[in-house]
Task: inverse folding
DNA sequence: CGTGAAAAGATACACAA
DNA sequence: TTGTGTATCTTTTCACG
């Protein structure tokens, strides 16, 4: 499905999402048109889901990152869906996975300050199916949004 | 520092990092040149750290995401730095924070399969200053890399 | 996959408001 | 600071070898 060159293109675009077809072409040792063809294919097949600017959290006043473990009181389909829909709609939540172990979910929340976090937790607690919440504050980021290992 | 329009630009670029100056301009109700100036400023001041393509993990054979809690045996400056440098160099690690609570670190690791994860854990365990490791597998992603709330 | 050419689009800059 | 206009450069697209 994907050959060396495709992977190279993906790697390059993961580093710099604004590289043009021409720039990519010379970096992978191709000419522009086959490179453009590959690009379109990679996008069309969904290997590339999109492009985005990476913003500086702290500079934007988003100094607090919190990892939050959540356990639900029940696991009825309807409640699970309601929970996921509710948290997905929260802008402060940038990541949410169901996980193995003691808790059901691991959330990552980004807020400007502690009062904002308290407010957010209140909203989370107000969800009826939420049984237990355990917060871990990020003290320092060692590595953030690293590139996928491809 | 940042006015409404700047924030709008950042929001738009967070959704689509390939929008051109002209497209951005009409979306925020500006003409091209002031929009380009703002863009350059936002990039120059570091509000925009870069641009990248968002890739589909599963399609690329990276089906396993694991959240790993790590506790060190000591917290001497040198050991801490050695640990952080070692894990930062691991491609499978896409995120690493020091966190409050029982553990010192929370890592996010992406690998193709369980054998690859076992291998990775072995490498982690081989670091002398690592005292305790606790893995939580991501069973399902509810929300991944959501936009920052700006 | 490569080449070449044509068309479209983007950027940069000077100047006016 | 923004808007307009222009000139330049780049990119994209496509037909064909």
Result:
């Amino acid at each position: 499905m994907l050959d060396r060159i495709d992977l190279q293109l993906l790697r390059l675009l993961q580093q710099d999402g604004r590289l043009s077809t021409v720039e990519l072409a010379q970096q992978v040792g191709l000419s522009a048109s086959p490179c453009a063809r590959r690009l379109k294919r990679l996008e069309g097949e969904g290997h590339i889901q999109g492009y985005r600017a990476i913003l500086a959290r702290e500079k934007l006043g988003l100094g607090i990152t919190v990892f939050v473990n959540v356990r639900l009181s029940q696991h009825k389909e309807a409640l699970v869906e309601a929970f996921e829909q509710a948290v997905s709609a929260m802008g402060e939540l940038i990541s949410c996975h169901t996980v193995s172990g003691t808790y059901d979910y691991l959330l990552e929340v980004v807020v400007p300050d502690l009062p904002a976090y308290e407010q957010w937790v209140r909203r989370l607690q107000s969800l009826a199916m939420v049984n237990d919440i355990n917060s871990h504050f990020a003290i320092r980021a060692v590595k953030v949004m690293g590139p996928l290992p491809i």
